[in-house]
User: Fold SIS domain-containing protein from Saccharopolyspora cebuensis.
Amino acid sequence: MTEAAGRHMAAEIDEQPDLFAGLLAERAAIQRVGERIAEHRPRFALLAARGSSDHAALYAKYLIEVLLNLPVGLVSPSTTTLYGAEPDLDGVLLLTISQSGGSPDLLAVTESGRKRGALTVAVTNTADSPINAAAELSVDVRAGQERAVAATKTYSTTLLALHLLVDAVRGGDGSTAAGLPELARATLDDSADAVEEAVRRYRFAERMVTTGRGYSLATALEASLKLAETSYLAARAYSGADLLHGPVAAVDADTAVLALCGGGRGGDSMREVLDAVAERGADICAIGSAAGNCTARHRIPLPPCPEELAPVLEILPIQRLALGLARTRGLDPDQPRGLNKVTKTR
Assistant:
């Protein structure tokens, strides 16, 4: 398969540092939404999303619980669309995260939530979407049109937008993320050779496990999805803690493991997990700023950054890995079989 395959995905991966800079330059709009949320003093947060956006929602769950000390739940849209549940949402913050802003079930959740007292906030890449119109407040992730079916730039800009939003709610000004565009460019440039080596190592892999803890669990889940939808690889994602509670029994010398090993508490907690996985003979690829401190056969080191921002950088070499594996397997990741850009569910 030639490099023409996946050209949209490749271009959109490379756009991300510039998109981060653009989003940071316009963060005053996100700041205003964060201030409105803070004025409401929510007692609880609910997150509604599907697909890659669901992984971004998990990232937001960690941000809100750790940085705002608010309890958070993930919405099951079918409780609204199939079962007609109508819980009291007075005093609840409802964040609907959708790249397209057009999924019917998420629209129904947003409309229903607003009627039942929730403060509704849409986080989308489509400013004129139905979900934006239904929500009281909205955040534009400013990724521009994404032509590849597999989400890359919309996923990472959503992560950054969510970080800026939560930071604004706690009274921050977004300065923690000020250096992210430069770190993202360094990540893409400096990891290129290690990613190419990973493509060579895993081009014939049949099974892969992705794993991480803390904020990086979202990255593990998104990595699994990217590998499955672009390379048709049987990839499963687990929390590092859950991996040791049973699934590790299925790990052996024929299993490739992508492990997120960043700095901070989440990355530190992965060392024991990877020692156990290595004992079973798995081929481990450690990705992150602390990759050199983890048991692994291959490493993709990343520049250090605050732990809560690491998922924005971690996903970049993984997107490149998914692109490279698809190409080496003779596939076009821009046109995965059976998939459309917008999936409509109820």
